[in-house]
Write a structure and sequence with these properties.
Strand content: 5-15%
Oligomer: single chain
Largest sheet: 7 strands, parallel
Distance between the termini: 6 Å
CATH class: Alpha Beta
Structural class: alpha/beta
Length: 349
């Protein structure tokens, strides 16, 4: 019987009156223990309200609301608070994701209401992505491993085992792997840095989030990563690039994208079919109801299941929703996705 778990990638639109740079600075100050009480309360309110929306959507394993920029969030702390003589190996006391602490009260309320612990997904930007964005494409193995050690400390500090909230998934985000043709790197250095990154999470479901299957062979060889996340709602043909027999031979599983998140692409396709330019009409809800409704999303999961069956463990949106026009629209997509996965599981019982 299928038991596909719905999840999301992490980012979500901020309230209209909040700028990304502002929330980024507050989060950094919280991690540094320098934030004012007013800023800390503001941050907790924004993050907890987003988390409540994710819970209300029905997503079974929601990611903490990633309200920061994915690279700066981790590199800034690693750069400023590293061990002596160990560049970019963040000191453990600074390897914090403030959003996780901010959702504690929401998780408690959810437990009091349902009697069930919130199962949390934690995304952490991978060592290669940090290296490429902040250092360059000619990768030095020792520095890449240092970033892996830094990421491992964020991972370790993000593993929660409380009655009302438990970390279920750790995901390493490596969107450039397979897309950037300019990377000069030893494969063993990448594999080793990824193994270091996820070592504290050996008893959890460990995912990697990719935007391409081109370098999937390197992930097959990374023993600590068991679930490979692929964006496939926007381009379902990408699933044809994955060999089910190889997945099984390496004991790997899939996290697949079943709802589109490229808002510009969705709008362009909708305009072509309907003649409606949602950027002018702002009727985004109608667009989502006609393109990313639960029926269409469930069909994508059905099609993927025919290829991989029980090798699919998780399904959700292709990528984060931080660039979407507003929170209500992002909530609508998450709700449609959760309903699609729930419906699929019921039908397969």
């Amino acid at each position: 019987m299928p038991n596909v778990i719905s999840d999301d990638i992490g980012s979500f639109p901020l309230p209209e009156d909040i700028e990304k740079a502002e929330i980024q600075d507050i989060a950094f100050n919280i991690a540094c223990k320098k934030a004012s009480e007013q800023d800390s309360e503001k941050f907790a309110r924004i993050v907890s309200e987003i988390m409540q929306k994710k819970i209300d959507s029905g997503i079974l394993c929601p990611n903490y609301p990633q309200v920061q920029e994915m690279t700066e969030q981790f590199f800034r702390l690693s750069e400023n608070f590293h061990d002596a003589g160990e560049p970019w190996v963040v000191k453990s006391e600074f390897a914090r994701i403030p959003e996780i602490d901010a959702i504690d009260s929401v998780a408690k309320e959810n437990f009091d209401l349902t009697g069930k612990a919130l199962e949390l997904r934690v995304c952490v930007t991978g060592p290669l992505e940090l290296y490429l964005k902040k250092i360059g494409s000619h990768v030095q193995g020792d520095l890449l491993r240092n970033l892996g050690r830094s990421i491992s400390r964020f991972v370790e500090n993000s593993i929660i085992r409380k009655e009302y909230i438990k970390t279920k998934v750790i995901c390493i985000d490596e969107p450039s792997l397979g897309l950037n043709p300019n990377i000069i790197m030893d494969d063993e250095d990448l594999i080793k840095s990824l193994e270091i990154s996820v070592k504290p999470a050996k008893n959890l479901d460990v995912q990697i989030h990719l935007h391409s299957t081109r370098e999937i062979g390197k992930i097959y060889q990374t023993e600590g990563i068991k679930i490979i996340g692929i964006e496939s709602a926007e381009n379902p043909d990408v699933l044809g690039e994955i060999d089910k027999r190889e997945l099984e031979s390496y004991d790997k599983f899939l996290r697949i994208g079943i709802s589109r998140t490229n808002i510009s692409g969705i709008a362009a396709d909708f305009n072509e079919k309907s003649g409606i330019d949602v950027w002018k009409t702002r009727n985004f809800s109608e667009m989502i109801d006609k393109t990313e409704n639960s029926e269409n999303i469930e069909k994508r999961l059905e099609n993927a299941w025919r290829l991989f069956n029980e090798n699919i463990k998780y399904a959700g949106p292709d990528c984060g929703l931080g660039s979407w026009p507003d929170q209500d629209l992002a909530f609508r997509l998450l709700k449609n996705t959760a309903e699609a996965v729930d419906g699929f599981n019921r039908e397969k019982q």
